[in-house]
């Protein structure tokens, strides 16, 4: 019996190709969008989930901001972990990481860079529930100068050979030898704190690289600290106790604070994060879109199939008259629905497979449809099946309810309720699409606004050169050679200017120094903010096109470095000083030293456009971290950028033959800070377009439904003198009214959503009225086009056809 | 002369074959005539009526209506012509279910550039003339078939056409109701001078007309 139903269903779908296509296509778009988005969402939510991760928390620091504690720093102190463990029995274990910057590993003098590594306590394996594929987990990080590698780094360094017991060196201090004691598998470990190389924490106490660091004190605050609390711990209570806890010798106006490790990736965005985290709000928004598109496609399906059912009224009438039972009819239409939904799901899965590479490129992930990913989608499968069955039941229900006597007389009168229901579906669809449209337009407006906002520094054609020498120490000879490098670079025809700096606008946050105590010239000491500072050489400002509002760039001294500093205008404002000139020559104190202000520069956005300008101090320093090169616009236009870059690299390697080298264009790096937002905006855009497409299909369905239903009316009106234009108006005005109603509902929704979204930005574009109007007009035009396609056909039809008396 | 059909042919092509719906129809109708068209089912009566009403085209021949050559008119002019001069009455009335009697009557006027006050007066006049003032706010479904056809005729008459085309106007009515409609047609024809062409199956109804045209297989007999 079912086989017969399927056969009829197939025949029917084939006979109505356009209808079947639109229906399957609309459903497939919805399902494919849903699956793609949910794959991404699930991936983003899978960070730091491991056995026992619910008991692992990160310790970070709050600082006082205007009398209130705010999250200040993702790092804690080197002694935070030990002190907390000693004080609180609930804490079973802790692990500290200290990042090693610009890590270059040497294997038989072959350098490997781009590896992320840290010093780590041996408790890492317990706290993070991470085992070793090679080596002994109980001893691997116990001895100084032991390293544990990820499988990929081990493969890179030692190929297929056994890495255990192998030795390697680390650039910066090539006098000591490290021994590989373990290999860990990082694949499928999503974590906000990535480590491809772990060095035993004990190494810290003897290794020359850290000999200038004060050991074991409350001065060292660049330690990511994670604690494992006993299961069944009242975390809230423990957190309260930790916040109130003042360890011995701790003098700062800060406090310790815990957060669940599971929520860091999506919900933490503090200074000095271990990496770029995700954005929980964007993930929430995307999930909402996923459900909306799915919902829209179901609404669509109900709409289309129930409108199509009208054309089948006669078939149903006949089937009923010859004795078809209601249940049989229902079953027949259900099998049609099932077949259609099944095909849509197949098509959607095919589309997901095809689109996944492109989608991955867009979101910058490597999502796959493997077992774990699919399992993660299982909970949604229930929703999808439920929705699909409801959507499938509806037309079956409508169809089988037709009164055969009426239907056979040609009275295709369905209930008013059915029409109201379909109308509500369409209005809902348009509320969703217009809201999405307005949000898309606003998001683009905001991103363009930020991109075009003046930075306060000129990053055009500025390249940062960076490298590590591998064959010798950073001693006085190095500094001499470094000066040679600067001279040589300056001689190049492609180079307009050369400078040096510790960091630059758009650079990684971790390269910025900071301090919590700052004494103003009037003697007042502020302990309630983080004060950022970095070192630079005097010509940095000129090279970056940063203008002085008072004083100059440490020029009063001929020394290579001094205790002169330049501050920005925001700093002056913070100190409550009206005239920046009044600050020149004054003394400020931090790091236990006196510093003389030699100049005040105009404000610039060091941390990108998403955060507001903060007070910044730039120290006069004999800096060697980044060589900044301003390329000569004319010369590179003529010779080409590649040639100039080649020459820079050659010059570098002439001076430092054994070294790593890489370069970064400052403007690109600065704009890259928008990458996440841009990806999000793009994803938003694409799924908005799909939602519009689905809604248009729905509208198309409802129009054809209405045109059939009003066929007789159209005929009567035409015979009584209505023109085609008048009929078009008659048919279209309702749809336009609905879009208008949808617009009125969508405006506050979109306004609210965008207002919320913009809260995350320091600089906000205005929520302009034209964005709403444009969104509404686009939706309206799409609606009119969709509707007119059908209604025009109905309007030009010869009334004789519809009015024939049989 | 109100209208004149000369050697009208109408056909459809089906499966390579030409099927004639109307064959060599010649017909002169003067103003004030009351004509009945008769013939078996499928003989082309409705087709002929539609051609006269300009709702349908034809393939050969000439059609003059009030000195205008319908066959050479553009679609829009043709529509204007029938809008102004012709009213239609249907076997199944074709009233709009969602509109009241009053609104159904007003509907054609909406398409003919009458002012609101004018429309009101014309509708009131028509309701009065047909004795259906009491039913003006009812919907078609609340009326008997005869009453619905009364409204249908009233609607066809409301913009003062010269010609009424009625396709089996009594086909759905019982004989008493049918007789009433025929009396009405007769009255309209005699007292108001409206030209009427009706299709009917009943000899009795056909006799109300002044002339009977018989069709068979699309041809006048
Ligand atoms: N558009 C058309 N295409 C094909 N056949 C048609 C068309 N219109 C009418 N016919 C056929 O022409 C014949 C005459 O139809 P009609 O004028 O409605 O007859 P009557 O009104 O006399 O019963 C019928 O056989 C009908 O099926
Ligand atoms: Mg007929």
Explain this structure.
Chain A is built from 24 helices and 26 strands. Chain A is α+β, with helices and mostly antiparallel strands and 806 residues long. Chain A folds into three domains: 75-267, no CATH class; 285-340 and 382-451 and 675-803, no CATH class; 472-657, no CATH class. Chain B has 221 residues and is an alpha/beta fold. Chain B has seven helices and ten strands. Chain B is globular, with a radius of gyration of 18 Å. In chain B, helix 5 packs parallel to helix 6 (175-192). In chain B, a hairpin with a 2-residue loop joins strand 1 (3-14) and strand 2. In chain B, the strands form two sheets. A six-stranded mixed β-sheet of chain B has the order 6-7-8-3-9-10. In chain B, strands 2-1-4-5 form a four-stranded antiparallel β-sheet, with helices on one face. Chain B has one domain: Rossmann fold. The site of magnesium ion has 3 residues of chain B, from helix 1. Adenosine-5'-diphosphate is lined by residues 12, 21, 39, 41-47 of chain B.
């Amino acid at each position: 019996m079912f086989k017969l139903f399927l056969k009829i269903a197939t025949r029917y779908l084939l006979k109505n190709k356009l209808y079947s296509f639109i229906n399957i296509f609309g459903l497939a778009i919805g399902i494919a969008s849903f699956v793609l988005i949910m794959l991404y969402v699930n991936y983003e939510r899978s960070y730091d989930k491991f056995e026992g991760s619910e008991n692992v928390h990160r310790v970070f620091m709050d600082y006082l901001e205007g009398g209130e504690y705010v999250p200040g720093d993702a790092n804690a102190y080197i002694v935070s972990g030990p002190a907390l463990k000693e004080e609180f029995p609930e804490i079973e274990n802790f692990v500290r990481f200290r990042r090693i910057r610009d890590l270059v590993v040497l294997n038989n003098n072959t350098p490997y860079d781009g590896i992320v590594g840290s010093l780590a306590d041996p408790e890492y394996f317990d706290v993070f529930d991470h085992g070793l594929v090679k080596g002994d987990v109980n001893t691997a990080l116990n001895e100084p100068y032991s390293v544990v590698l990820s499988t990929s780094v081990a493969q890179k360094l030692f190929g297929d050979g056994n890495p255990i017991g192998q030795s390697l060196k680390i650039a910066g201090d090539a006098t000591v030898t490290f021994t590989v004691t373990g290999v860990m598998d990082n694949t499928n470990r999503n974590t906000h704190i990535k480590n491809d190389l772990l060095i035993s924490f004990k190494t810290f106490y003897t290794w020359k690289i850290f000999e200038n660091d004060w050991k074991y004190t409350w001065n060292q605050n660049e330690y990511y600290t994670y604690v494992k609390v006993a299961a069944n711990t009242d975390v809230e209570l423990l957190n309260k106790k930790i916040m109130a806890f003042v360890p011995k010798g701790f003098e700062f106006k800060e406090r310790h604070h815990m957060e669940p490790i599971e929520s860091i990736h999506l919900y933490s965005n503090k200074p000095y994060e271990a990496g770029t985290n995700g954005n929980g709000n964007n993930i929430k928004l995307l999930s909402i879109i996923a459900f909306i598109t799915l919902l829209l496609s179901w609404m669509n399906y109900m709409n289309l199939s129930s409108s199509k059912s009208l054309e089948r009224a006669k078939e149903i009438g006949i089937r009923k008259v010859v004795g078809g039972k209601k249940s049989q009819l229902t079953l027949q239409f259900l099998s049609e629905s099932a077949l259609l939904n099944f095909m849509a799901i197949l098509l959607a899965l095919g589309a997901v497979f095809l689109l996944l590479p492109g989608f991955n490129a867009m979101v910058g992930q490597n999502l796959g449809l493997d077992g774990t990913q699919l399992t993660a989608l299982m909970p949604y499968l229930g929703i999808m099946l439920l929705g699909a069955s409801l959507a499938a039941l509806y037309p079956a229900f409508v169809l089988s309810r037709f009164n055969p006597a009426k239907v056979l007389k040609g009275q295709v009168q369905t209930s008013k309720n059915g029409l109201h229901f379909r109308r509500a579906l369409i209005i809902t669809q348009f509320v969703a699409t217009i809201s999405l449209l307005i949000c898309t337009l606003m998001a683009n407006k905001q991103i363009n606004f930020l991109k075009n906002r003046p930075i306060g520094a000129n990053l055009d054609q500025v390249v940062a050169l960076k490298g590590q020498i591998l064959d010798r120490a950073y001693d006085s000879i190095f500094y001499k050679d470094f000066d040679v490098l600067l001279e040589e670079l300056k001689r190049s025809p492609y180079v307009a200017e050369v400078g040096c700096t510790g960091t630059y606008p758009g650079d990684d946050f971790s390269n910025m120094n900071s301090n919590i105590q700052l004494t103003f010239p009037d003697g007042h000491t502020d302990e309630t903010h983080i004060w950022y500072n970095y070192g630079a050489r005097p010509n940095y400002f000129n090279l970056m096109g940063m203008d002085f509002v008072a004083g100059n760039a440490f020029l009063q001294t001929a020394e290579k470095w001094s205790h002169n500093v330049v501050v920005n205008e925001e700093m002056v404002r913070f100190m409550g000083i009206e005239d920046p000139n009044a600050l020149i020559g004054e003394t400020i104190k931090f790091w236990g030293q006196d510093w003389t202000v030699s100049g005040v520069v105009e404000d610039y956005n060091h941390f990108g456009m998403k955060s507001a300008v903060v007070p910044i101090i730039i120290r006069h320093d004999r800096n060697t971290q980044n060589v900044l090169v301003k390329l000569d616009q004319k010369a590179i236009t003529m010779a080409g950028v590649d040639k100039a870059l080649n020459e820079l690299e050659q010059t570098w390697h002439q001076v430092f033959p054994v070294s790593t080298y890489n370069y970064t264009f400052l403007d690109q790096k600065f704009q890259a800070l928008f990458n996440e937002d841009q990806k999000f905006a793009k994803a938003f855009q694409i799924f908005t377009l799909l939602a519009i497409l689905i809604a248009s299909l729905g509208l198309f369905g409802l129009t054809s439904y209405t045109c059939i239903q009003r066929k007789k009316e159209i005929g009567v009106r035409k015979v009584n003198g209505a023109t085609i234009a008048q009929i078009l108006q008659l048919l279209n005005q309702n749809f336009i009214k609905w879009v208008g109603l949808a617009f009125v509902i969508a405006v506050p929704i979109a306004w609210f959503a965008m207002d919320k979204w913009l809260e995350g930005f320091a600089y906000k574009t205005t929520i302009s009225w034209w964005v709403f109007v444009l969104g509404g007009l686009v939706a309206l035009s799409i609606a009119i086009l969709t509707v007119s396609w059908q209604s025009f056909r109905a309007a030009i039809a010869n009334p004789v056809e519809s009015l024939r008396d049989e | 002369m109100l209208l004149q059909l000369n050697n009208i042919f109408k056909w459809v092509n089906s499966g390579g074959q030409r099927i004639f719906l109307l064959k060599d129809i010649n017909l002169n109708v003067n103003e004030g005539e009351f004509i009945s068209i008769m013939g078996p089912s499928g003989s082309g009566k409705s087709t002929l009526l539609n051609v006269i009403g300009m709702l349908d085209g034809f393939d050969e021949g000439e059609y003059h209506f009030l000195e205008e050559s319908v066959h050479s008119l553009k679609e829009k002019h043709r529509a204007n012509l029938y809008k102004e001069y012709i009213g239609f009455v249907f076997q199944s009335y074709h009233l709009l279910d969602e509109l009241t009697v009053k609104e159904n009557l007003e509907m054609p006027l909406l398409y003919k550039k009458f002012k609101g006050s004018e429309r009101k007066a014309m509708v009131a006049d028509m309701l009065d003339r047909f004795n259906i003032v009491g039913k003006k706010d009812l919907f078609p479904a609340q009326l008997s078939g005869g009453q619905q056809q009364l409204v249908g005729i009233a609607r066809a008459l409301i913009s003062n056409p010269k010609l009424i085309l009625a396709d089996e106007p009594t086909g759905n009515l019982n004989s008493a109701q049918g007789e009433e409609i025929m009396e009405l047609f007769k009255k309209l024809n005699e007292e108001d001078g409206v030209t009427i062409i009706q299709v009917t199956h009943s000899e009795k109804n056909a006799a109300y007309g002044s002339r009977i045209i018989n069709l068979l297989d699309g041809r006048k007999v």
